[in-house]
From TrEMBL:
Compartments where found: Endoplasmic reticulum membrane
Protein name: Uncharacterized protein
InterPro entries, sorted: P-loop_NTPase (IPR027417), Small_GTP-bd (IPR005225), Small_GTPase (IPR001806), Small_GTPase_Ras-type (IPR020849)
Pfam families recorded: Ras
Length: 183
């Protein structure tokens, strides 16, 4: 089977680690410095449930609760990774606003595959959002939830595995359960 092409956007408040998660996934390293993103697109192959995927990963500029999302964020994007950082309650509030705006534009949640990600879970002493709160929000939205650490490469690949599964489900295909092989 030829690779399927999917486009995924990472969205969320500034400095939550969208670029770090993307770079850890695509290039397998962690960038300690903070360089605000305008917008970058990366490409990466990933095998999920026996199917090869070519992913375009769009690392967006950070949003806040007042951001007007550009039209380009609603067309030609198959799935959304909504990122907050567990050490910032503000970023958790912003991610809810971003979700509401996405849903407004997409019409309903069936058209809007999402994975909710609480990044920086290595910062145990600075935590402001509990795992239970993230989980509860994801259950309300009926989406997958993961806590990650881009710094410690924890659950990063799993994020992309889960968003592909969500996209396939939204398209009416239930992908086989199984390992995910990164190439
Ligand atoms: N401790 C820790 N720091 C992280 C983690 N992920 C990112 N950071 C740091 O957080 C800062 C912001 O990370 P970025 O990846 O640039 O965040 P961003 O969401 O892309 O930011 P914008 O481009 O402004 O939207 C950087 O200093 C990163 O090194 C993580 O998992 N753990």
């Amino acid at each position: 089977m030829p690779p399927k092409q999917k486009t995924i956007a990472l969205m969320g408040f500034r400095s939550v680690g969208k670029s770090s998660v993307t770079i850890q996934f695509v290039e397998n390293h962690f960038v300690d410095s903070y360089d605000p993103t305008i917008e970058n697109t990366f490409q990466k192959n990933l095998k999920v449930g026996g199917q090869e995927y070519t992913l375009q990963v769009i690392d967006t500029a950070g949003q806040d609760e007042y951001s007007i999302l550009p039209q380009s964020y609603f067309v030609n994007i198959d799935g959304y990774v909504l990122v907050y950082s567990v050490n910032s309650r503000k970023s958790f509030e912003v991610v809810k606003c971003v979700y509401d705006k996405l849903l407004d534009m997409k019409g309903n949640s069936k058209n809007c595959p999402v994975v909710l990600v609480g990044n920086k879970n290595d910062l145990t002493n600075d935590r402001e959002v509990t795992t239970a709160e993230g989980k509860k929000q994801a259950e309300e939205w009926k989406v997958a939830f993961l806590e990650t650490s881009a710094k410690e490469h924890q659950s990063v690949t799993e994020v992309f595995n889960r968003i592909i599964q969500a996209i396939e489900r939204a398209e009416g295909n239930e992908p086989e359960k199984g390992g995910c092989i990164v190439s």
